[in-house]
Write a structure and sequence with these properties.
Shape: globular
Number of helices: 11
Oligomer: single chain
Radius of gyration: 22 Å
Strand content: under 5%
Order of helices and strands: HHHHHHHHHHH
Helix content: 55-70%
Number of strands: 0
């Protein structure tokens, strides 16, 4: 029985957060920049692109080199900001279910349905395969497995997503980071901000961005604004299937 001076305890409710449209426009803008980046990769001087034109362009090369220095850090920063606001209007369970439907399901679908077609076009372009789409399809997954076995970087890290999911690797990384960060953000879900996720996350992420490029290739802060910082471009041998052809010639020269 409660005393007259005490108030009844109320269940914790989900409070909708005010939407910041500037974040939406930043995401749209970065997406446009990255879309143009992938188009111009076909025409730059780096031979490791999955699809490559015979004639190259200096403009395309300068653009892709410049954008590649910050495009993925920007994407992950915006993803972290979105996570921070998302957890203020969702429970941890709702957030995890949403990550599965928006990240994991598209990753699996794209890896099984879209990537084989793209790999086929890349094989034709780089002359590592000759034949029809129907002739290539049964070879795609066995060749992917051979490529993984022939590449040490794929044996012990999420870099294996570059082989299995190609350009969709971002979805896999983001899903893993989201799940690992959730214990740190659990108290934030549908509730007030906490020192762990709020006052520490953003400053730590921004601090990591100031580390000299030569001292790291990738860093992750599992906090409210986790930012996998990719200062230097990922080596072509990791990002591009054709670039691995010399290391796995027996797997791709059939």
């Amino acid at each position: 029985m409660q005393s007259m001076g005490s108030s009844p305890s109320l269940p914790r409710t989900v409070q909708p957060a005010a939407r910041l449209y500037a974040i939406d426009w930043l995401r749209v803008s970065v997406m446009g920049v990255v879309y143009l980046f992938h188009v111009l990769r076909v025409f730059d001087v780096d031979p490791s692109s999955s699809l490559k034109n015979a004639q190259t362009s200096i403009f395309a090369s300068v653009y892709t080199f410049f954008v590649n220095q910050w495009q993925m850090p920007a994407f992950f920063l915006l993803a972290g900001v979105s996570t921070w606001f998302s957890l203020h209007s969702r429970t941890a369970k709702q957030y995890l279910q949403e990550r599965v439907s928006r990240l994991l399901v598209p990753l699996v679908f794209g890896s099984l349905i879209l990537v084989p077609w793209y790999a086929y076009l890349s094989g034709l372009n780089h002359e590592t395969f000759q034949g029809s789409w129907l002739a290539y399809l049964p070879l795609h997954f066995p060749r992917t497995w051979q490529l993984i076995k022939a590449t040490p970087e794929y044996h012990h890290s999420m870099a294996v997503l570059f082989a299995t999911s190609w350009h969709l690797w971002f979805l896999g990384h983001l899903f893993v980071f989201s799940v690992l960060a959730l214990p740190l953000l659990g108290r934030t879900a549908a509730g007030p901000r906490t020192p762990t996720a709020g006052s520490i996350g953003l400053p730590l992420s921004l601090t990591l961005r100031t580390i000299p490029p030569g001292s790291r290739t990738r860093a992750t802060t599992l906090s409210g604004t986790f930012v996998p910082g990719q200062v230097n471009p990922i080596p072509p041998a990791v990002t591009s299937w054709p670039a691995l052809k010399p290391a796995a010639a027996s797997a791709w020269a059939e």
